[in-house]
Write a structure and sequence with these properties.
By secondary structure, the chain is an all-alpha fold. The protein has helices at about 10-40, 40-70, 70-90, 95-110, 115-125, 130-170, 175-180, 200-205, 205-235, 240-270, 275-300, 305-330, 335-350, 350-365, 370-390. α2 runs antiparallel to α3, α9 (about 205-235) runs antiparallel to α12 (about 305-330) and α10 (about 240-270) runs parallel beside α12 (about 305-330).
Length: about 400
């Protein structure tokens, strides 16, 4: 296996998505405290969790277009400035409406993160090292909730949730300093220049919609857990805030490590001669079936078994994350990755619009989490269809022939 060296742009976009997930995940950690202080219902908490995605999702295709036409460097810098300000101001919010508006602003800023970051990776890394590069980036955004939950939960116990939002938001702005010195390559080493397809040509690909469905299913379980796990552990399983923070953080850490390890393994298999299709399809399909089983186990087993199922889910899900972006980068190439990922990630993150709010409604209407976990399991099964049955052979698209081969 060729040695993978972390290029400065990949390192900094990994740090950017790490900050992205720390800032967006603080609300879930603070949810029990915010509910008690502001008197919010579970439905209102669910709406706050979903509000972020009401701006994040529809703006993502436009963010992909901007990343390709204005360059990912400027677009990503503007995005992190906006979402950092929204995070800091959340600590000053006086009620539900202010929190709602700030979550929308957070979504505006963070909508640029993955279209810009994946374009940077596609232009900086050879095709047979996309697995480890995306595993490394996945480690960044997956470790974000672990660090954010552990550190945020610890600090909230001492200085309160408001101060934590202000500190985290202002601290995020420091990233802009090293980013201003980055020089981005036009294309990855060993990748020939390719035709630039139209948006219509990208949207006509069956591969885009298979990946989008699989991405949606993977995200539904993930966002359901990340939005409601702290509340579930405290209110249903009887954990203290400190115990909840530690349990959730260990789960998120396993998730991140699994992504990093699987990224390295997928590259090793591909470099040894395996086709990307034979590598990524089994991983993505088995991850969705494993998620189905774990969702059901989490709600039906006693406390110890439920936590074991949670940890198993985090490992299984983590194994699929390198493929979520390596697959579109392989299909689209550097010339179309920004727009492809903008559309795919928008479809995938519709789950964020639905899962937190729908879970809140189900909890309020049924008095428990059984229906919410059952729905997450069913959607996981749907993800198997997208990744395994709809997605065609994973190979670079010759965009110069797209008019004849759509």
């Amino acid at each position: 296996m060729r040695k993978f060296s972390i290029e400065r742009p990949v390192l900094l976009v990994t740090l950017a998505v790490f900050i992205n997930y720390v800032d967006r995940g603080n609300l879930a950690t603070a949810a029990p405290l915010i509910q008690d202080q502001l008197g919010l219902t579970a439905t209102q908490l669910g709406l706050l969790g979903s509000a972020f995605y009401y701006a994040y999702v529809p703006l993502m295709p436009a963010a992909g277009w901007l990343a390709e036409h204005l360059g990912p460097k400027r677009v990503l810098a503007a995005g992190i400035a906006i979402w950092s300000a929204a995070t800091a101001c959340t600590g000053l919010a006086g009620g539900f409406v202010a929190l709602l508006l700030l979550r929308l602003l957070l979504g505006v800023g963070e909508s640029v993160a993955f279209p810009a970051a994946t374009k940077v990776v596609a232009a900086s890394v050879p095709p047979d090292q996309l697995g480890i590069a995306n595993g490394f980036m996945s480690f960044g955004y997956l470790i974000g909730p672990a660090v954010g939950t552990a550190l945020g939960g610890y600090l909230m116990g001492y200085i309160g949730w408001r101060a934590v939002f202000v500190v985290f938001g202002l601290g995020s702005l420091i990233w802009l300093w090293p980013w201003r010195r980055v020089s981005l390559p036009a294309a990855a080493p060993g990748v020939a220049a390719s035709a630039t397809p139209s948006f219509v040509a990208i949207l006509s690909r069956r591969a885009l919609w298979g990946a989008a469905l699989g991405h949606f299913a993977a995200n539904y379980s993930y966002y359901f857990i990340i939005a409601w796990l702290p509340f579930y552990l405290v209110k249903v399983r009887g954990f203290s805030i400190t115990a909840m923070s530690m349990t959730a953080s260990w789960a998120y850490l396993l998730n991140a490590v699994a992504a990093l390890v699987m990224g390295a393994l997928t590259d090793r298999w591909i470099q040894s001669g395996s086709e990307p299709t034979r590598v990524y399809k089994p991983v993505m399909g088995l991850a969705q079936l494993g998620s189905f089983a774990c969702m059901l186990a989490m709600v039906t087993l006693p406390a110890a078994g439920s936590i074991a199922a949670l940890l198993a889910f985090e490992v299984i899900a983590g194994c699929s994350y390198p493929g979520i972006f390596a697959i579109p980068q392989t299909f689209a190439g550097p010339s179309a990755t920004g727009r492809w990922v903008g559309v795919q990630n928008a479809c995938g993150n519709v789950a964020g619009m639905i899962a937190p709010a729908l879970t809140g409604l189900l909890v309020d209407s049924t008095g428990g989490f059984d229906a919410a976990f059952a729905l997450a399991a069913a959607i996981s099964a749907l993800g198997f269809v997208g990744w395994v049955l709809i997605l065609p052979r994973i190979t670079p698209i010759d965009w110069s022939r797209t008019a004849r081969n759509v």
